[in-house]
Specification:
Helix 2 packs across helix 5 (75-99). Helix content is 53%, strand content 14%. The protein starts with a strand and ends with a helix. The chain has nine helices and seven strands. The model has no long low-confidence stretch (mean pLDDT 90).
């Protein structure tokens, strides 16, 4: 199995690229979706998050806005939250890899791949990137996003140019979707041929 680590900063088009891999039949582990499930009603992270961050959960699971207000921009509180979430996500990732062990390629979609030292568990690091003005436009179009929140999120993430420098492959997402899909198709075909060879 070739494990592709898919990463990229907020608004770079990572979800779109992950969907393209899926459409080509490549299984994708989505760390963000896993976190959402862990924080949903009955999710394994709800009780420990409430214990550490009182008042941030309710009948709908974790109130992401309330939790974000406590942790974004506060390194100590963010580290405490990560101490709850990361072990649960790792366990889910192990289960995903076990289920897909006979597949030639899998994608591990991990937004904080570099920040958490996750590049050691993959065979290839793919960074999704776009110019800063495209990133800003995409992120500020999201519901509930503000300029201040965007700046705080960017400060918490490794800069895009550093991610690009450390990548094995960079996928540019500013071009039209058909061109991005062509980049992904070529990569999948190349890796599949390498695996067969």
């Amino acid at each position: 199995m070739i494990r592709i680590g898919l990463t990229g900063s907020i608004g770079m088009g990572k979800s779109t690229v992950a969907a393209m891999f899926r459409s080509l039949g490549v299984p994708v582990f989505d760390a963000d979706a896993c976190v959402h499930a862990l924080q949903a009603p009955g999710g394994a992270a709800v009780v420990p998050i409430e214990a550490r961050f009182p008042g941030t959960t309710g009948p709908n699971g974790v109130d992401r806005a309330a939790l974000g207000a406590q942790v974004i921009g506060n390194a100590q509180e963010m580290a405490a939250l990560e101490g709850i979430i990361h072990p649960l996500v790792r366990a889910a990732r192990v289960r995903f890899l076990r289920r897909n062990r006979s597949r030639p390629l899998v994608v591990l979609d991990i937004p904080l791949l570099f920040e958490t030292g996750g590049e050691d568990m993959v065979d290839l690091v793919l960074v999704v990137s776009a110019p800063a003005f495209v990133q800003r436009r995409r992120v500020l179009a999201r519901r509930g996003m503000t300029e201040a929140k965007f700046r705080a999120i960017r400060r918490s993430q490794m800069p895009d140019d550093e991610k690009r420098r450390r990548a094995d492959v960079v996928i540019e997402t500013a071009p039209p979707k058909w061109a991005v899909r062509a980049q992904i198709s070529r990569l999948v075909a190349c890796l599949a041929a390498h695996k067969r060879g």
